[in-house]
Write a structure and sequence with these properties.
mainly alpha, flat
Length: 96
């Protein structure tokens, strides 16, 4: 009895929200901003702690290798972002 009433309330709420107005999309800019401002610094801090821990044990070659890999990864990410803006510029240039 409770389950059917709950299901009826959920379907009623769903119908009201879908009929109430325009559907809203996902705020992708907000998601990207959240990751860039909150998640990325935490991940970089964790990498820094790992690198410092390895360096204190005398594993300098592993630290340098890991640092180089991290830097190359950041370069690829920056390159992908720049290609996104370059593509946007080219589309605006062609279709304007």
């Amino acid at each position: 009895m409770i389950a059917t009433e709950l299901a009826a309330q959920v379907t009623t709420a769903w119908q009201q929200t879908t009929l109430a107005g325009e559907p809203t999309g996902i705020n992708t800019e907000g998601v990207v901003t959240f990751f860039a401002s909150n998640i990325a610094p935490i991940l970089l801090a964790v990498l820094g702690v790992i690198f410092i821990g390895r360096a204190s044990r005398g594993e300098i070659s592993k630290v340098l290798t890991s640092s180089a890999i991290a830097i190359v990864g950041l370069v690829f990410i920056a390159g992908a972002a720049s290609l996104f803006f370059l593509g946007d510029y080219l589309v605006d240039l062609i279709f304007s």
